[in-house]
Amino acid sequence: MANLQEDSNPDSRLILTAENHNTDLHNEKADTPDSGGPGGCRGWGARHTVVVMATLGLFIDYMLQTVLAVTIVAMVGQNATREEVEGEVCPLPEGHNATQEIRAGVFAWDERTQGLIQGCFYYGCALMSLPAGRVAETCGATRVFGAMVAAGCLLCLLSPVAAQTSTYLFVALRVTQGAAVVRHG
């Protein structure tokens, strides 16, 4: 039984002795997940998991944002126009073949269409910044962040089908993808 002393104050509070107090603290500490007790690893808590997941989510968001800038080169192919160089130019060595093979891409998008496709991602970001923040206030930021990263990834998987179907469908998908991957900063 615990050694209890009654205080001489009129409120008559109960005080635990130092011996029982240390034992109770030791028992409480052993059951916390951060303490290496039965519930988890020593030093690894929920906050560390959130940090790792948020880092991976931001990495995925950045990849979804920039992947089209790299892949559009192969999607469109090389441009057949050549710029004429004026002035003195270093001559090619003898025996060098000056002709280049022009690779055609799958899509015949001009530069304006390519710019629209790449830029429409940011229209979605601008449209959803405030509504996504409000939803994060009510539902919790980690849930909203995870759902938006998952939605952005699913839309990325649908982008080849949308691009082959219609340019306008691909633009709409990129706007939606931008809405799902709201800029974080």
From TrEMBL:
Coiled-coil stretches: none
GO biological process, one term: monoatomic anion transport
A Pfam family annotated for this UniProt entry: MFS_1
GO molecular function annotations of the record: transmembrane transporter activity
Superkingdom, natural source: Eukaryota
Membrane topology recorded in Swiss-Prot or TrEMBL: Multi-pass membrane protein
GO cellular component: membrane
Keyword set includes Transmembrane helix: yes
Keywords: Membrane, Transmembrane, Transmembrane helix
InterPro entries linked to this entry: MFS, MFS_Na/Anion_cotransporter, MFS_trans_sf
Transmembrane annotation, as ranges: none
UniProt subcellular location: Membrane
Protein name from the UniProt record: Sialin
Organism: Chionoecetes opilio (Atlantic snow crab)
Organism phylogeny: Eukaryota, Metazoa, Ecdysozoa, Arthropoda, Crustacea
Gene transcribed to yield this protein: SLC17A5_13
